[in-house]
Amino acid sequence: MTAEPRSLALLGSTGSIGTQALDVVARNPERFRVRGLAAGGGDVALLASQVRQTRAEVVAVADASRRDALLAELGEDARGVEVLGGPDAATQVAASGADVVLNGITGSVGLAPTLAALHAGSTLALANKESLVVGGALVKDAVSRPDQLVPVDSEHSAIAQSLRGGRRDEVRRLILTASGGPFRGWTREQMAAVTAEQALNHPTWSMGPVVTVNSASMMNKGLELIEAHLLFDVPVADITVVVHPQSVVHSMVEFHDGSTIAQASPPDMRLPIALGLSWPERVADVAPACDWAQAQQWTFEPLDESTFRAVRLAREAVAASATHPAVLNAVNEECVDAFLAGRIGFLDIVSTVEQVLGEHDGPGTSHLVPSLVLETETWARARAHELLARA
What we know:
Elements: E1 6-11, H1 16-26, E2 32-39, H2 44-54, E3 58-61, H3 67-74, E4 82-85, H4 89-94, E5 100-103, H5 111-119, E6 123-126, H6 129-135, H7 137-142, E7 149-151, H8 154-162, E8 171-178, H9 188-191, H10 196-199, H11 209-217, H12 219-232, E9 239-243, E10 249-255, E11 260-264, H13 270-278, E12 301-302, H14 310-320, H15 324-340, H16 346-359, H17 370-390
Parallel strand pairs: 1-2, 1-5, 2-3, 3-4, 5-6, 6-7, 8-9
Antiparallel strand pairs: 8-10, 9-12, 10-11
C-alpha cells in the first residue's frame, strides 16, 4: 500500500530555499503535496505561478498591501484559495497543521512561524536559523517529540546525518565547514573598501542577499555555531570552524575514539532541503553525486578569527546571556541592510555588532519568553540605528 504524500507548508516560497524546495516537490509528486505557501510579497507573479503549479489551498503575503496585487495576478485561479495578507500571515500558514513546515524565511521574523509550526505538531524543516538563534530555549521547549525539528542548513543537515554513526555521548566535537566566502585570505585593510557587489559574489553558493553578505563577513558561520550548539546540545567550546573552499564536505562529527564522520556532496541545497522534507528517509536522485572517477582535491584550513571576528562574537554571545544572541542577530540584520543600501562600510557590520553586544545587559534569568525576545530585539535595533546614523 502506497503511503499518502506528505502535506507541506512552504514559507519563503519565492526565495532561494523555497524555489529549490518546489523543484524537489515537482519531481516527487507521489511523496509531497503542497498545502500552503507564504512569501514576502515582492514577486507576486512568481507566487501566483507557484499557487497554480502546486494547487495550494492557502497562500500568504507578509506585505498586506500586496494582497490585492496577488489576487489580481491569480485572477480566476484565486477561487478556492485562501489568500492571507499581513505580518502574521506566514504564522497562520505555519499553524495550519501540514505534515511538514519548511521555514525558509530570512531573519528573526521567522520566529513566530517556527513556534506556530511546532505548537501545531508539524515537523519543522528549519532553514531559518535566526529563529533558533533568537528564540533559543523558547524554540527547544516547543519541540514535543524526537525529530520534530529537522535542520535544513547544509552544515547542520550534515551533522545530523553524521551523528547517525555514533551515540551522542561518544561525540568529542562538531566541525563546521565554511567556504571562506569571497574574501578568504584577505586582510582587514583589503576589506575596508569592499563593495556590495563584491560581497554578493559568493564563490560556491547561490543564496539570497542577506545570507550571502553574512557569508562574506562570516557572521553566517557565527549564527550557525549558535544553531549547532542549540540543535545538538554541544557546548560552543566543542564546536570548531574550519575553512573548506570547495564546499563539498558540509560538516563533520569527531568522536572520542578519534574517528571523524563527514557528509560530502556537491554544493546543492536541494539535498538538505529534500532530506528535511522527507526525514528520516531519503529522496532518490535529488542532485548529482560526487564524481569519484575524477581527480579532485579538498583542502581545509583554520579560520582567521582575528580578521573575521563574527565567530568569536557568537561564542561570547552564548556565554553572556540568553538574550545576547538575539542582540547579535538583530544588529547584524540592521547593519547588512545599511551596507547593501550603501550607508556603511563592510567592516562596520561586525564592528557595530560588537559594540552593541558590549552595551547589552542580559537578563538575570535564562528563561526566555516571547515578550523578552521582542523587547531585546527592539532595543538592539534602535541602538543600531543610533550608531548607524552617525556613520
